[in-house]
Design a protein that fits this description.
Oligomer: single chain
Order of helices and strands: HHHHHHHHHHHHHHH
Shape: globular
Mean pLDDT: 85
Number of helices: 15
Low-confidence stretches: none
Helix content: over 70%
Strand content: under 5%
Number of strands: 0
Length: 275
């Protein structure tokens, strides 16, 4: 094979990666340009490629009724949802991996099935239950109902990471008198930190973007960002500029989170792939 032919073959992966990046970023670029254009330029045909950016859509989106509150509601729901998922998921993953739990295979299969079930199946019974116990339209209730998919995912993912930790470490700690809780906290959690970080990030993305459950189980006080963005659609018109600006705002936390934790994500997912 000639040197030029070898060079062309070497460039193919970069070309494919470049096309994938362009395709994935183009919708974000288009939304951003709509957010930064005035109403006339936003939908001009042919498209206006050179324009003076305007920032009023971002101010309008943030100050609109309910959007900033929905933004902080989503942050709180993600925080509580992750705490609940890890508090129950870490011990459950440990016991299902290291202990002889009766019906372990059945439990794991059911967890997998419950993760894959459509979300709307849970809405009707949860709506009735939440109305009766006062959890309807609360961030606590929303974080609890999100456990139907975050907890099974957490258990399955962490179980794979825990399986690669030598049992001898736990046995040595047990001989020193350490309790099961102390073994989990001082041995399994630090070693599986990349997997835990990847789990938190993936759960956060899932909860942040969820719409169906939030639409059914909230009304005003606990609305999330996905509902707030839909609120820019009026009876007979859509405020595309403010909606696009709001969409960019809600992308930023998850994008920033992913950038800051990318090393943990890659490390965690790579370890999971090896397993």
């Amino acid at each position: 094979m000639s040197r030029s032919s070898s060079s062309r073959h070497a460039l193919w992966p970069y070309a494919v990666a470049l096309v994938a990046v362009v395709i994935s970023l183009f919708p974000i670029y288009w939304i951003l340009t709509i957010a930064l254009k005035n109403r006339v330029d936003a939908f001009a045909m042919p498209p206006v490629w050179l324009f003076s950016p305007v920032w009023e859509n971002f101010g309008k989106a943030w100050s609109s009724t309910g959007f900033s509150g929905a933004f902080f509601n989503s942050l709180i729901v993600c925080a509580i949802g992750n705490v609940l998922a890890l508090a129950a998921g870490i011990p459950a993953a440990y016991y299902l991996n290291r202990k002889r739990v009766p019906g372990r295979r059945t439990i794991l299969i059911w967890l997998l099935i419950s993760y894959m079930l459509p979300e709307f199946l849970f809405i009707v019974p949860m709506y009735v239950l939440f109305q009766s116990v006062g959890l309807y339209d609360t961030v606590i209730g929303l974080a609890l109902i999100y456990q139907v998919f975050t907890l099974p995912f957490t258990i399955w993912l962490l179980r794979a990471f825990f399986a690669d930790i030598p049992e001898a470490l736990a046995e040595a700690a047990r001989l020193e008198g350490a309790s099961t809780l102390r073994i989990i906290w001082t041995i399994y959690v630090p070693i599986a930190a990349p997997g835990i970080a990847a789990t938190v990030i993936l759960n956060s993305i899932k909860m942040w973007n969820e719409l169906t459950i939030a639409l059914a189980l909230t009304f005003e006080k606990a609305q999330t960002v996905t509902l707030a963005v839909a609120g820019f659609r009026g009876y007979a018109s859509i405020d595309w500029g403010a909606m696009s600006a709001a969409s960019i705002i809600i992308i930023l936390p998850m994008a920033l989170f992913a950038i800051l934790a990318q090393r943990r994500i890659v490390q965690g997912l790579s370890l999971g792939a090896v397993k």
